[in-house]
Specification:
With 158 residues, the protein is an alpha/beta fold. It has a single domain, classed as Glutaredoxin (3-Layer(aba) Sandwich), CATH 3.40.30.10. The chain is built from 4 helices and 6 strands; from the N terminus they run E-E-H-E-H-E-H-E-E-H. The protein has a 6-stranded mixed sheet with strand order 1-4-3-2-5-6. The chain is globular and about 40 Å long. The two termini are 28 Å apart.
Length: 158
């Protein structure tokens, strides 16, 4: 899979590449190795994306609520339109959408987004407990992307 600049370094069946994230709330930015031992679901989202706000973030929250002991969820706020959201907007969104998972900003708006070959927002990357990329899908349609994610995650929960 390639992105608009053909920079994708993410490959299904290969180890998850490093990410380039920045803290929003002063939290220490995790490294991918911090997530070894459990599957990891990465959500690329944007506060300017209606599908992210209306379906993807609630879905990710549900995954944490229902399966948090079996999977980690990490949010990456990306913005391929290069709009710089003020810190207050993130604080308000964190409260309004009741985030149950940590999220960080993508460096330079979309560095990791491009490196991982994301197709837009929301975009999901599913990584197995050993750090190998299992699945990558764009979208938030409950009958397509989210259903497929449910099925792929169930395979990893064995």
């Amino acid at each position: 899979m390639a992105n608009r600049l053909d920079l994708s370094i993410l490959k299904i069946g290969a180890p998850l590449p490093d990410w380039s994230l920045e803290s929003i709330f002063g939290d220490i930015v995790p490294q991918k190795e911090d997530y070894q031992g459990k599957p990891l679901l990465i959500l690329f989202f944007s506060l300017g994306c209606p599908g992210c706000l209306g379906r993807a973030i609630p879905y990710a929250n549900r995954i944490v609520f229902e399966h948090g002991e079996r999977i980690e969820v990490l949010g990456i706020h990306t913005n391929f339109e290069a709009i710089d959201f003020p810190a207050e907007k993130f604080v308000k969104a964190k409260e309004e959408f009741h985030f149950r998972f940590p999220f960080f900003k993508d460096k330079n708006y979309d560095t990791t987004f491009l490196d991982y070959g994301a197709g837009g927002t929301p975009h999901w990357i599913l990584v197995d407990k050993t750090g190998v990329v299992n699945y990558s899908i764009f979208g938030s349609d409950p009958n397509n992307a989210l259903l497929r994610l449910d099925l792929k995650m169930a395979e990893l929960f064995d």
